[in-house]
Amino acid sequence: MAATPQAETVAPETKAIGSDDYALSRVPRDKRFGFWSMLLQWLAQSGSISQFTLGATIGVGMTFGDAFLAFTLGAVILEIVIFAIGLAGMREGLATPMLTRWVGFGRNGSALVSFVIAVSLVGWFGVQNTIFGNSVSALVGGPSWMWCVLAGIAITALVIFGFKYMAVFAKIVTPLFFAMVAWSIVSTLKDHSLSELIHSPPPGQTIPLAVAATAIAGGYMTGAIVSPEMTRYNRKGSHVFLQSASSMILSEYIVGLTGVLLGHLVKSNEVSHIVLSTSGAFGVIVVLMSTAKINDWNLYGSSLGVVNFFQVVFGKRIHRGAVTIVLGIAGTVLSAVGIMTHFTEFLSILGVAIPPIGGIIVAEYWVVKKMRKPLDETRESETLPKTSPTWVPMSIAIWIAAFCVGKFYDGGIPALNSLATAFILYSILGLLGWVKPYGTSTLDDEDDTAAPAAPATTPVGAA
After folding, report:
1. What pairs with residue 388 in β-bridges?
2. What per-residue confidence (pLDDT) applies to 13?
3. Of the four listed, 225, 243, 261, 385, which is most buried by Cβ atoms within 10 Å?
4. Residues 395, 105: contact at Cβ < 8 Å?
5. pTM of the model
């Protein structure tokens, strides 16, 4: 097969540390992954002890039936968002920061999007690393900062080499995690009546349905918005739906509702010890690996955002592997010294700022369809359009308005409120012709189309 334009001009760049993973270009179709490799990547996002804890927290304040409704509402909301945005990423082979250049925001607007996403994700990488270090310290001893450093180094080393090696890690961790969890849960519940647990009243203060749904859907909304980071490696739209839906079913119905039963059993949300106490040192290792597998996506998505930001703002084409090293070190150091936990409120604010990005992407790509024409024209050739809009001021105004709704309106689910507001406003104003791009930016051939290609070897799971 003839080399793509991206691959023809970049031989020297492939010597850089790690993989650039098509940070500023489309993922070629022959470099995309097979169904099962991608499925394991999706399922790996469900393999978290924190999801059991969330289920137990909801179970303490809700009946099993009400908890089922809450998880259903959360899963449906997330799946709609993931599929609508993820399918766009799959069709174009582009991650969210690059997609927004031609879908709603323009070149300079995409820099703002990249900055918000990068700061949010690297922040959560640091927060999760802190939680990781504290948990391991409590379980096996040793200073928390030491475990933060070790975990940060390991995750950074994995993410440097990109999606291919993250997929290999998922193949190892995902089956081990769920096999270990299944053994622990069955061992714990076998001496108890499932019927009694299902019909037992909530042991704690009642949690309203809207509050529970907010915790379920809102907690992963940022991940839904950046789903193109993963789906750009998919081959078919049906794969995006089946894999993301499978992840939702596993995460919400199996892991989450099992957590509800455990919450009813122990009458507390402190259920992580159940899994760990019944599986010994092996269980601790698997849980640590599964936590790392989830947190690697925070660092990966952040690196893609920074690459696009620097290219737009400074005109510099920097390698994603190098960016990963810098971000990984920064997040690791901040988590080790205990600073990151003080930024959780700020990161929560960003969590309301990111969903409107998804609302605008969905509205422009699937409803208005006025800016995406250059993507349609270049999709088959797997190249990028030569030009993009510079600014789309109305999109920025819609983004700000939607953020205010999500932040200051007390009803419903904040993340969903901001996303829906952005979608509705952009759809209406776009169809009326009020969303207009200003200026035209020419794609810099040296920086953008010469994006370093991945090694020419066949990717894992491609067969």
Report:
1. 441
2. 44
3. 225
4. yes
5. 0.87
